[in-house]
Amino acid sequence: MDLTKDAATARHALRTMWTIRRFEEAVDDLFARGLMHGTMHLSIGQEAVPVGACLALRDGDYITSTHRGHGHCIAKGARLDAMMAELLAKETGYCRGRGGSMHIADVATGNLGANGIVAGGVPIATGAALSVRLRGGDAVAVSFFGDGAVNEGAWHEGVNLAAVWRLPVVFVCENNQYGMSMPATRAARVDRLAERAAAYGMPGVTVDGNDPQAVHDAVADAVHRARAGQGPALVEALTYRWKGHSKSDKNLYRTRDEIDAWRERDPIARFERAVAGTLSEPEIADCREQAVAAVRAAVRSAHAAPDADAGSLTDAVYAEGAA
Amino acid sequence: MTTAPAAPGTRTLTYADAVREALAQAMTADERVFLLGEDIGTYGGAFGVTGDLVHRFGEERVRDTPISELGIVGAAVGAALTGMRPVVEIQFSDFTAQAMDQIVNQAAKIHFMLGGAATVPLVLRAPGGSGTGAAAQHSQSLEAWFAHVPGLKVVMPSTPADAKGLLLAAIDDPNPVIVLEHKLLYKDSGPVPEDAARVPLGTAEVRRPGADLTVVATGVMVPRALAAAERLAGEGISAGVVDPRTLRPLDTETILDSVVETGRLLLVQEAPKTCGYVAEIAAAVAGSRAFGHLRAPVGRLCGLDVPIPYAPQLERAAVPQVEDIVREARDLVRRW
């Protein structure tokens, strides 16, 4: 699917990327003003990956996400108000304040959850695909993870199980160049992390992760294969996080020049140029404004919501009744 | 273990056969239930527990896996989150160390972290315990690790009937349940109900009533405590034996009721003493209505604080034996 030629698709892709950007900027701002608690991992600069990938999915498909997961959540269709309420520690948040940024899930939209453990979601995605197989469906599972995940045992075990059982999983590596401060180039001997796919007998491809079209094409191919019963594939999307790893990051491991060079490759600005023949300037401006309005409304409603209630803190440790 | 005459609706089965029967009945009743683990298919399981199930239910539902404990449990978490009821066999409970992230950080916490929005109904069966000459990496009793994690339930069946009934209840449960079977019990026989009767999680069983002393024992220590009680009876000491069966949630009341009656408590576990599970029972009794009824210090007979050794005489010395229980019980009653 060409994301730039059809006006509705182009609008959706652009609006979603802007929504992710504005949502995370709002989070950054709330944090800076002392209105948000905990820590935060922002994906500003990486918006093309979740948007391009999730446009290859349909209702009933699953994703697993990461600690840097706001973009995956939004691209898969999560509600901004419930996300923001979670980050602001409200009872109306996705997790009623129990999970915070690193544990947002939206099972209704097939989002099986962000994950605070690097590569934690990888075997879980394999399990969701196994479940699809056993139930006889044709859904696929997309597992998002960063370059830091590919050296974890969980990654290798999850990928291998999907490969030997030919399960419908698409492994999407968001290679943003650093696992916290460790450069991907110092953490693996291969030039392309997609080369790891060969070890599991599945296809692997590396694409420009700042181009939603390139991400979409690669993921759509992999989804098509997976749905057709041809097993998993690995897509490596090269991208960059503009912000630090988390709130403690002083950017000691990379240079201002490097950051600026990647900011020149802003995936949203590039996509705006790519859709200029399809959307008018006012239509493009409207996408931006809709994103701003949606995020503002989410912040407003979250601020007005009741705080998470310690009176029911132990309620959800165990589920009751039969599953 | 003694083999009682089979009551109506029961037959004599081994513990391993009882586990297999529970799996078969659960899989027959609910197509969401499936098994995965290492060598559980054609091989029939390292301890023969799954046996012929692969022939009865097929390779999809009795799923042999690569040696990949973290991946196996992770896949089970994903399947459980999306509507299935996986039952994982970890070949030796020691190997759960390979899978701890998925057990502790994922399975146990997902329901809570998501504010109750999802459940992880998975069962992890794993044989534990020493006595087979398999040494330190194949012989541990790790129940305290799991019982310390909010979100997990922990079960230690000590009889064939409980091995079946507790497993069926664990499969019904919407939470992750760790079922720690004992390798030395697999060949023990006992009466097992033919139907799929559940033994509710969180109910202790008084295995033997007693007037002078309450022995609370877990896992393979239950039959040893019963053998000890039999010998003690010959010395005129009436020792009761309580089997918690479920460590989390613990049926504290049944234990307290017994302690109130006897005034003496001996706790017996195979696992090393330091930070062991029975310390939790001691603390529960110390802070309870039973405290004022105690006539003796609470006794704790546990495995030594050593890795399980290989040589049979060393292995035997590392964990409580029947004569150790007899001695400790006798001391508690005679001295106090």
Automatic annotation (TrEMBL), chain A:
Coiled coil (residue ranges): none
Cofactor: thiamine diphosphate
Keywords from the named record: Oxidoreductase, Pyruvate, Thiamine pyrophosphate
GO terms (BP aspect): pyruvate decarboxylation to acetyl-CoA
Limits of the Dehydrogenase E1 component domain: 16-308
GO MF annotations, alphabetized: magnesium ion binding; pyruvate dehydrogenase (acetyl-transferring) activity
Segment forming the signal sequence: none
Classification via PANTHER family: PYRUVATE DEHYDROGENASE E1 COMPONENT SUBUNIT ALPHA (PTHR11516:SF60), PYRUVATE DEHYDROGENASE E1 COMPONENT, ALPHA SUBUNIT BACTERIAL AND ORGANELLAR (PTHR11516)
Protein name (database record): Pyruvate dehydrogenase E1 component alpha subunit
UniProtKB/TrEMBL annotation, chain B:
Organism name: Prauserella shujinwangii
GO molecular function: magnesium ion binding; oxidoreductase activity
UniProt KW keywords: Oxidoreductase, Pyruvate, Thiamine pyrophosphate
Taxonomy, superkingdom: Bacteria
The protein, known as: Pyruvate dehydrogenase E1 component beta subunit
Cofactor(s) listed: thiamine diphosphate
Domain Transketolase-like pyrimidine-binding: 13-188
